[in-house]
TrEMBL record:
<protein>
    <submittedName>
        <fullName>Putative helitron helicase-like domain-containing protein</fullName>
    </submittedName>
</protein>
<keyword id="KW-0378">Hydrolase</keyword>
<dbReference type="InterPro" id="IPR025476">
    <property type="entry name" value="Helitron_helicase-like"/>
</dbReference>
<dbReference type="Pfam" id="PF14214">
    <property type="entry name" value="Helitron_like_N"/>
</dbReference>
<keyword id="KW-0067">ATP-binding</keyword>
<keyword id="KW-0347">Helicase</keyword>
<feature type="domain" description="Helitron helicase-like">
    <location>
        <begin position="336"/>
        <end position="518"/>
    </location>
</feature>
<dbReference type="GO" id="GO:0004386">
    <property type="term" value="F:helicase activity"/>
</dbReference>
<keyword id="KW-0547">Nucleotide-binding</keyword>
């Protein structure tokens, strides 16, 4: 008993000494001291300006914050997300046909607004192909703006020229079969029970005439119709050619030479696997190649009313005089689409006026880009085979000499953003930073605000358009705001100097982007007492009379729910309780203790409340926030103290959990990681734009150096399946790894034995070509940390 009491007294004394140490340090350093020295500094909203700047090469409009080289002088601005500094040169778009221009402009009355609301239906009426995708319709059940969201893979399918016996025409068949009743046929194909009163026959009739006059694809299908109705061709095929061998131009006005109606007996079998061959009658659908130039025109006739060519794999990159010769000689599909979705001076594209259909196009486009990349990975799996070195030696001893018989074949490499291996690497990198600097101090969640003044000003010249019509603008503004916030926090102004940070981008269920950020503060700026916490984090409603702007922002963005007994139908409710544990209990003071979650001050002040959904809301529903960040960025910014070790693993896994996935398991092909990735994928327009512009998903500082560790002869070997096992074993890269190279360096360099493996990169550099460690130069600085991973 005496021993037990002595242990308790020792722990009490230890806790008391820790508390005294924190209080003493806080008086000299800490957040409270730092914030007190900053008193008097006023924080105002950081206005990012307007997109009045333009690319010197292609006239794309952008904000100053998007430039890679920023200056108020337009001549000094460099922007690469449009034409890559003049490397991409494409012809300008044709003006929108008059009838379609009238329908796409919501200023032209109720008919135009109704058309825009139902534009996806009208597009489906005239599409030549069907879009295969699982569309999430539930997402638009609420009161929020419309969002086009899919899960799984995307593909376009086309059937025969004529319907099977007894079936009604649909898609491309509507241009050929029974065109005397084309208006009713198109409406019946989409709405057979005539339940949709928003479909107007006069609009359908006007679109038919417009496409007949302007669309080269439609004209060729009409030619086939005329020949069929006159009885000249009882059986026919139609081939939409990929490209002509004599075509030397990058872009050419579509002509009838690009689309040929072919009689079956005249040409024999066509061997091209890229051309689109449509049979007269067929019971099966054919899948259109993603690299076919008519891929998008066939699916989106309203966005491409002239039947224009789209992306071609052979589009060359312009070589700019004076610039270094680029390795890449062709324009990538991603770069092509990123070029197409830019606003440009003196050019108004039909594509950008598409509203909800433009959302669908963005999702379809990125899905096409991503699936094309994954197809390349699948076709080049021989470059991604891996096996343990010992297994290679055992196979060679057994007389097996074919490398194609070893290793896993279908994998998604860690270099692919968003893959499981990529997410694991990001998690391990974050944990390595944590091991170096201790527990992080601040966990900040920053959510996009679609009512930012920059976005509202953008739509001032087109007041009838909705914010949902341009998800690309929303993503671009959020990117500007996020970069400014990271720069602002790293400058040390709001919280003091920063040791390290990690941030990742996610997209909400409704598609809006938001960022999760972790920051490590230097020792002099950490939180040691409750006063330090109160100096940077508040969980109470501000005084409306003292700071009305802050009160407005908190009321609009930082109130949870209401939920619980006040609203049992709130989306956050799970089994009768709030999943976010609101409403929070009232507290007179902040409770800040080691290894315990911080409990923020929430006083029960009846004079401070807001009215939300006719319910009085007090401090118990306020999400913790920082005053300076709210005033500067006018958005939902949740700031939490997270210096407790019990939260670390959860936080790092949370910020690196990756995008939403469908919880589906396909038993047939569990080893096909590419198919599993695609089948479980969700995509929204905002994420599609983010990926098309190649905005970063993850960021961290300092950099992390991966160090391999393995048992003898059990290192992983990457090899080409065409190689022989004997040649693989003889390669120098097979024998030497970072770990074996470290052993060798210890025998060569004096002083190397004084360094542990994890500290070795501080004075030595790994040469991946020579497979050896070499001493660093004395002037070389280290801006990275290391961690060991097991092969």
């Amino acid at each position: 008993m005496t021993v037990f009491c002595r242990e308790i007294n020792e722990k009490d004394n230890q806790c008391q000494s820790e508390t005294e140490f924190r209080d003493q340090r806080s008086r000299l350093f800490g957040q409270a001291s730092y914030q007190q020295n900053r008193q008097g500094l006023t924080v105002k909203y950081e206005d990012s300006g307007d997109n009045v700047y333009s690319c010197n090469h292609c006239d794309a409009c952008f904000w100053l914050g998007e430039a890679i080289k920023r200056s108020t002088s337009n001549a000094s601005i460099i922007y690469t997300n449009c034409c890559r500094k003049g490397e991409i040169k494409l012809e300008r778009s044709k003006p929108t046909p008059t009838f379609l221009e009238h329908l796409l402009n919501p200023d032209n009355g109720s008919e135009s607004r109704s058309f825009r609301e139902n534009i996806r239906i009208y597009n489906s009426m005239f599409a030549f192909t069907s879009m295969g995708a699982n569309i999430d319709y539930k997402i638009n059940n609420g009161l929020g703006p419309y969002v086009f969201k899919i899960s799984g893979q995307v593909h376009h399918l086309m059937g025969s020229l004529l319907p099977s016996n007894g079936e009604s025409p649909k898609y491309a068949q509507l241009y050929i079969y029974d065109t005397k009743n084309e208006v009713s046929n198109r409406i019946n194909a989409i709405d057979p029970n005539h339940n949709n009163v928003n479909i107007k026959s006069n609009i359908v009739e006007g679109l038919i005439k417009m496409f007949d006059q302007n669309n080269e694809l439609v004209k060729e299908f009409r030619t086939i119709r005329d020949r069929y109705e006159n009885g000249f061709i009882p059986t026919l095929n139609m081939t939409i050619l990929n490209r002509q061998p004599t075509d030397s131009k990058q872009y050419e006005t579509p002509t009838s030479e690009e689309i040929d109606g072919l009689i079956v007996g005249d040409i024999g079998q066509h061997n091209s696997n890229k051309d689109l061959i449509i049979e007269s009658k067929s019971g099966c659908l054919q899948r259109i190649s993603k690299i076919h130039p008519k891929y998008m025109s066939l699916q989106y006739p309203i966005l491409f009313p002239y039947g224009e060519d789209g992306y071609k794999p052979n589009l060359p990159i312009e070589q700019i005089p004076g610039n270094s010769i680029k390795k890449r000689k062709r324009i990538s599909m991603r770069a092509y689409i990123a070029y197409q979705i830019q606003d440009r001076n003196n050019e108004v594209k039909t594509l950008l006026k598409g509203g909800r259909l433009f959302q669908q196009f963005l999702v379809d486009s990125y899905a096409t880009v991503e699936e094309d990349r994954l197809d390349w990975i699948r076709r080049n799996q021989k470059n991604f085979r891996s096996e343990i070195y010992k297994e290679l030696c055992t196979s060679a001893t057994a007389g097996i000499n074919k490398a194609s018989n070893l290793g896993q074949k279908i994998i998604l490499p860690s270099s692919y953003t968003g893959s499981p291996r990529d997410m694991i690497n990001n998690y391990q990198d974050a944990m390595a930073i944590c091991r170096q600097y201790g527990n992080p101090d601040l966990f900040i969640t920053f959510t996009c605000n679609v009512k930012w003044i920059e976005i509202e000003r953008y739509f001032q010249n087109q007041p009838e358009y909705k914010i949902e019509d341009r998800p690309d603008i929303i993503s671009r503004i959020f990117k500007i705001k996020l970069e400014d916030m990271m720069t602002y926090i790293k400058s040390g102004e709001p919280f003091g100097e920063i040791d390290a940070y990690v941030h990742t981008i996610e997209f909400q269920k409704r598609g809006l982007p938001h960022a999760h950020m972790l920051f490590w503060l230097k020792k002099d700026y950490k939180c040691y007492t409750a006063a330090d916490v109160d100096s940077i984090i508040s969980a109470e409603l501000p005084d409306k009379n003292v700071n009305p702007e802050l009160y407005r922002i908190v009321s609009q963005f930082m109130i949870h729910g209401p939920c619980g007994e006040l609203n049992l139908k709130s989306p956050c409710m799970r089994n009768g309780k709030c999943s976010k544990f609101f409403p929070k209990p009232y507290n007179l003071n902040t409770i800040f203790e080691s290894n315990m979650p911080t409990v923020y001050r929430r006083r029960d002040d009846l004079t401070k409340f807001i009215l939300k959904n006719d319910i009085h809301i007090g401090n118990n529903f306020v999400v913790p926030y920082n005053i300076n960040l709210l005033l500067r960025y006018n958005a939902h910014i949740n700031v939490e103290l997270c210096s407790q070790s019990m939260l670390i693993k959860y936080l790092f896994k949370y910020i690196n959990k990756g995008p939403d996935r469908a919880r589906i398991l396909f038993q047939e092909n569990l080893k096909d990681e590419i198919s599993a990735y695609l089948n479980c994928r969700y995509l929204t327009p905002h994420e599609s734009v983010w990926r098309l512009f190649e905005y970063s998903i993850h960021s961290r500082h300092p950099a992390v150096q991966h160090l391999q560790i393995h048992l003898p002869s059990e290192q992983n070997i990457i090899f080409n399946e065409c190689q022989s096992i004997e040649s693989i074993i003889k390669q120098k890269s097979t024998e030497y790894t970072m770990l074996t190279g470290w052993f060798k360096a210890n025998t060569i360099y004096p002083g190397a034995t004084e360094l542990t493996y994890t500290n070795f990169p501080s004075k030595f550099v790994w040469d991946d070509q020579k497979k050896c460690w070499t001493p660093r130069k004395k002037c070389e600085t280290i801006g990275r940390i290391t961690y060991i991973y097991i092969l």
